[in-house]
Design goal:
This protein has about 525 residues and is of the alpha+beta class. Helices cover about 45% and strands about 25% of the residues. Helix 1 packs antiparallel against helix 2. The longest helix has about 40 residues. About 30% of the residues are buried.
Amino acid sequence: MTRTLSPLSVPYRVVERGGSIVFTAVVLSSGASAAFGPAGGVVGVALVGLALLALIAYEVAYYRRFEYDLGAETLDIRSGVISRRNREIPIRRVQNVDISRNVVQRFLDIAAVDFETAGGSETEASLRFVDFAEAKRLQREIGRLKRGVEGSEEGEPEPPADELFALTSRELALVGALSFDVRIPGLLFVLVSGSVPAVSSVVPSGAGIAVVAVGVVAVALAVLLVSWGAGAAAAILNYYGFRLTQVGDELQYERGLLRRYDGSIPLDKVQTLTVVDDPLKRYFGFASLRIETAGYAPGSGESGSEAAVPLARRDRVFALANRIESFGTPDFRRPPKRVRRRYAVRYLLVLGGLTALLYGVEAVTAGVLPWPPYAPVPLALLAPVAAHLKWRHRGYWLGERHLATRNGFLRRRIKVVPYYRIQTVIDSRTPFQRRWSVATVTADTAGSLSLVGSDAAAVDVADADADDLRATLATRLRESLAARRGWADVADAADAADVADAADAEEPVPAESDADGSTTNDAA
């Protein structure tokens, strides 16, 4: 049955877009008054009035000419005021159906619906806006159709929802306390470079080194405090009321305070599971879980959807991840110990380059820097420590049906990929890696994070191990695909037998080791 948008979408879209017209009105009125004198204000108001009338007429026409129809195999959308556009989206390609509502939309009981497909990170189609009940119906019915179940009748009870995770008030407070906006510290360089007058009030001109150091520390602490506050506020607004449930073979989630998100992800479309933590979370035994499908990675879509556990005890996160993909407990094999020297040399080269740059700035600007150019040199003492931590938190693991990789110290990511989800196995060796006889083996998937180089990667693996890993992944990929085809054939045969039996009866078919061989395990 053909349906249209909510009638309330017309006034909402007019008000939503009218803000730019109001701004334009102020500019036109001031410009017209200067050009035409007293009559200029009247001209500006008239132009704004015509623009508002044109906007209202366009939105009414957009509403009347927007239609959609959810069929058994496709979602058909017809839209366009001047240029008509007809889209036919196969139901089987729909990966995610995401619903979002801000405060005003919740008051009006309307919602925006985004349909994500397996074509990349962009939204395939959007409905702006429909009744919230209609949005939930679309989400529910598309899930039914993807499972091969006929559309539900009116009044049919919903499938039971199994709650997998719910964020408590204490956990929400921890999410905020452990969150940090990493973008704000980038302003630190600007603040302490002497280009912002605020630094002058903290570090007076002609001050000694001790005063300079105190001033720089004060500015740094202020920036860190603002970064923490911004990160905490964003996390609380983002994850308020987070709830993850399983309905049939789909994951459904709800989250958000000012803007509420409600999304679904089919379990059979999950590409990669990622357990994320940092030193602070690891110290207290917490971690986060992210779920990536072929449509998009969590948080990357326009809808802002994110099927992920923002924070929970580490064992709870791994238990949930194993419920989605039963991979067990990874036992990671670290890179050769000799690569720690490579990391240390890399850090020392960076410090050397930074020191040379500061000396160059000092020479050009005649001493404008608030610190001496050799200030980064003491950090060289930390290079071996940083190199060891980088090595310690890298590794890979080959399970019976899954590949797991681990990378990062300040932001560690453990990625779990089923073998049958691997699209391509990539063996890459930079000139520097070839010098150290190591390589990187990447398991490329259909997830959108692969576009930015965030696939599961075994980094700095010894050459011989890299060759074995590449061959093993290729073999297990073929075996897993063959096994899945076998299961599908068995299922099809069983379905055919059921149909035949029903026809005869005239009844309806009702689950780390170091390179030197020692073994450790800190994955769980």
